[in-house]
Amino acid sequence: MIIVDGLPFSTDTSASPQGRDILAALMEHPALVSASNSFKAILERRFSVPEESGPEKTPPSKWVYLFQREYATVDPALVDFVGTDEATTCVGVAIRNPGNGMTSVAHMDSPKIVDIGLSQMLSLLVDHNSDMELDVHLVGGFEDVSPNHGNCNTRSESREKLAGYSFPLCAKIVETLWNRQEKFHIRTLFILGHNTRRDLEGNAYPIFNGFMVGTSTGSITPANFDRTSRCPDEIVRRIRISASHEESSWKGKLMETYDTQTDQFKIAPCSWTLRQLHISLSLQDYSDSEILLMCSTSPSAEGPDFVENMRRQWEYLIEHPDWRETFPMKQPRIFERTAEGGWRRQKALIP
């Protein structure tokens, strides 16, 4: 069930509307249009470790960052902020239980992961005997045009879609919320046209690529995270995005990264194949513009470090062709939070 502005939401279409009909009606709802205008006016917050963990911060802020296709549910007693960025055609989804502040955030990149992904997000948020209305924020996606690109396979789907990438994903998310039994109070719908700006030539770009949620208040703010704050285990987690496409155990799922109870990152093992090594070797000599065209669903809208991040992943795969070097004995990589708010890797307990 979807709730907007305190009231159950309905459309003017059939009793069982399609996702596109629900989405179109939501995009025009006065309360959500107003919320989008208010969100657009908020100054984007930029996160970096030096800024957030300096001596003037007592105690330092604690946050959890999510990469593409990841999700995490956080406890406000342990985490101050949870967020994601780097979204172009992807959509960031935040669901919060206002009763206890538990907050789940996901970076969704495909309609195929929405059904199971939302169930994963809700698993620690919902008491099935409760009638609690859950606050929902959707940020990301824009009025994109699906380009021709090759089989780099590190973003969303690799085939063309006439409707672009953002619209089918957004439609699937709202349709799934509509059909579930829980009550979802949509607070922010900063997607598609609301999140689109155009240059003088009419090219479309997202206004914001990320956000963060303050766990104690539930406030949502546009956010940008630099490399120092996209922690821990940045490169390995980026590689898992592409590796997950070839592992059946991840099919239809969001990737688990964070343990809610212990406030630890637990990067589950994943394997990469010779195919991915060959792709890395073959792509490293391409120009920046060629890499954008082959590896992005929205080449003109990517951040300035997109190509550099791709090259860093390929370098890691070339240096570590055997995934078992990264995950000895198929054990997860575990990171615990330091007193300064950063992350420290635990030594692997290998018998």
TrEMBL record:
Keywords: Hydrolase. This is Protein N-terminal asparagine amidohydrolase isoform X1. InterPro entries: NTAN1. It comes from the Eukaryota. The keyword Hydrolase applies. GO terms for biological process: ubiquitin-dependent protein catabolic process. It comes from Prunus yedoensis var. nudiflora. One of its GO terms (molecular function) is protein-N-terminal asparagine amidohydrolase activity. The keyword Mitochondrion does not apply. GO terms for cellular component: nucleus.
